[in-house]
Amino acid sequence: LLDLDAPVASYWPEFGAEDKGSIPVRWLLTHQAGLPFPSLPVTYEDVLSWDRIVDKLAASTTEWEPGTAHGYHAVTYGFLVGEVLRRVTGRTVGTLLAEEVAGPLGLDTYIGLPDGLGPRVEPLAGRLGAPDDADPAVRELIEQFMGPTTRLGRALSCGGALSDSAVFNDPEVWAAEIPAANGITDARSLSRLYAALIGPVEADDRFP
Question: CA Rg, the chain, in Å?
Answer without folding.
Answer: 18
